[in-house]
Every structure is written in C-alpha cells, then in structure tokens.
Amino acid sequence: MNLKSHTIFPLKRIAATIYDLFLLLGVWFGVGSIALWMNNGEILNPWLGLLIVFISTWAFYSYFWTHGNKTLGMAIWKVEIYSFDGNKVNLRQTSIRFIANLFIFSLAGLPLIGIYFSSNGHSLSDILSKTGLRHI
Q1: Residue pLDDT tens, the chain, 136 long
Q2: Cβ–Cβ contacts within 10 Å for residue 54, how many?
Q3: Among the four residues 26, 34, 71, 134, which has the most C-beta atoms within 10 Å?
Q4: What's the pTM value of the predicted model, to 2 decimals?
C-alpha cells in the first residue's frame, strides 16, 4: 500500500464533517429520546448527557470507519479512510483518530493547516492514528 496520502485538503475534510454533523444530530436526538424515555421523562444530569453524546458520536464514526472505510459525508465528497499498514482500519485507530479530531475541532480546525506543510499531506489525526484519507 502506498503510504503517501492523496492529499485531502482542509476544506474538503470540513465539508464532509459538516455533512456528518447533520446526520449526527439525528443520532443525538434518537439517543437522547431513548435516554429520556428510560429515565421516565426526567431530564438527565448534564454531564451524563454530554457523556452520551460523546459515546454516540464515537460509536457513529468508529462503526462507519471500520465498516466501509467512510461515513456518508465522506462518501458524498468521495473520500475514504485507510490504514498505513494496509490492513483494515481497527477500533484502536478509530479511537485515536476520533480524539485527535476532537482536539482539532476544539481549536477551530487550525491544526489542519499542517497539511500544507507536511511532505506527504497528512494531518495531525492521520499521523497519530496511522491512518490517512484518500480520494475514491
């Protein structure tokens, strides 16, 4: 497998993420409704609610990255994830990538500028998780 990424520039990554955020809204509403129903209509502790959002978001990305190598937003923008070692993307890699992407998101995407300075077009989350994005 070629270790050099077909550089997916920040704007395309952000566009796919925005598309996925709309899908995640539906997931969050569904999970929140189930949690509220299970709690007899009582509002949950805000920290527990935040934990549910975090876990459901991680599960969303981990499932789609390990089963098909792309989310729907990535498919629309013709991007997929791959492992540098040529194997199937595993749960450990998706977890590392998810945490790294949360860090990047918390800094308003500024670390994505590093793609332009990387010799192989990898972002911080690509390097840490040993995965990359390529055009399909």
Answers
A1: 444 446 788 899 999 999 999 999 999 999 999 999 998 888 878 899 899 999 999 999 999 999 999 999 999 999 999 999 999 999 999 999 999 999 999 998 888 888 888 888 899 999 999 999 999 8
A2: 12
A3: 71
A4: 0.87
